[in-house]
Amino acid sequence: MSIQIDGVNKFFGNFQALHDIDLHIPDGQLTALLGPSGSGKTTLLRIIAGLETAERGRILFHGEDVSALHVRDRNVGFVFQHYALFRHLTVAQNIAFGLESLPRGKRPSKTEIRETVERLLDMIQLPQLANRYPAQLSGGQKQRIALARALATKPRILLLDEPFGALDAKVRKDLRRWLRSLHDEFHFTSVFVTHDQEEALELSDQVVVMSEGRVEQVGEPTQLYAHPRSRFVFDFLGHVNVLEGEVLEGRLSQGSAWIALPMATDARTAQLYLRPHEVRLADEPTTEANLPFRVEAVSLIGAEVRVELKPDGWDSDRIWEVGISHAEFNQREPKRGDTCYALPRVGHLFAGETAGPVTLDWAGTGR
Ligand code: ATP
User: Fold this and answer.
1) Quick check: CB of 194 below 6 Å from ligand 1?
2) Residues lower than pLDDT 70 in the chain
3) Ligand 1 centre and the CA of 193: distance in Å?
4) Residues 6+ apart with CB under 8 A from 38
5) In whole angstroms, what is the distance from residue 251 CA to residue 248 CA?
6) Which residues of 65-76 are buried (b: 16+ CB within 10 A; e: fewer)?
7) What is the pTM of this model?
8) Whose CA is nearest to atom 11 of ligand 1?
9) Which domains, ranges and CATH numbers included, belong to the chain?
10) Cα(365)–Cα(287) distance, rounded to whole angstroms?
11) 212-252, pLDDT tens digit by residue?
């Protein structure tokens, strides 16, 4: 069941929360609405659900205009950040609730409801918890049960609003892997809201980046990460190192720090964006770059060692991050307070009024 959002605008009084949203959510895919707080993600999700109405625009499910349909007639399932399970009902009764509440003509028999609940409990891998009450469950278990409850009525579309937001980091990671595999098996069309870029990139087929009520960019996670079209998307998807300065005689300079640009530009000022893995560490400046730093912190957790750097003798309001291998870490052993130099391998230059960045590559320039 695909979802088409056509020219949706939403106002709260004089405040415009959504501006001309056009969006296609493909059938059977997991789409993330990603953006900072207040960017309009939840409002858009609620409009898709029918919990909120747009002043202008249409929502179509599989080509059918559902804008005027009441929430209960749209056949969507919800999972919210706070589990909202019924405290006085057992797990099995919670899952069965949507089916038990159907009008008599549509309600399955008691046996069918019991079988559906058993199947869903197996699917969420918690068959042993059928007779527990919500107060006797962990946060992760509650959220799985909320998902089973949402799926019980076989919704056409599943909407999830920060589904893992209230859980700790480890449980969050486990649950999102689990949701991904569940999704791969059952292929429901899902839209989930998150402000966590890692979660969006890891979990979804398509990511919609939102800012101030507008869609900034839509794409598959890898394509979006590799080719952000705006400074905002660049900044929002993971850490980015920025050198902002003047362009003079083929160099981009900020105070005493500079980098040679491997291409000509007419712009007088520019910003160079570099991902942590696009920068190397060196003991000395080179003919291409003089970017001195002091090591601020070293984090060994993860597949790479993250080295945080503070500009040394030049202005930048940001800490830089460089990712190095554990092997390089063992060789170099950077420590807090050490001086070092950053050398770009690849960078992304925003100069003048050009719409998107130009990718620069220092490979093959003699280093
Ligand atoms: P968060 O990640 O913090 O939940 P969000 O991206 O989901 O943020 P929304 O909840 O969609 O953002 O809100 C978008 C904007 O609309 C915000 O500025 C918010 O204050 C405003 N807004 C949302 N609901 C209402 C409402 N019922 N009345 C007035 N303003 C609202």
Assistant:
1) no
2) 83, 353-355, 364-367
3) 12
4) 212
5) 5
6) ebeeeeeeebeb
7) 0.85
8) 40
9) 3-229 (3.40.50.300), 239-361 (2.40.50.140)
10) 10
11) 999 999 999 999 988 899 989 998 998 899 999 999 989 99
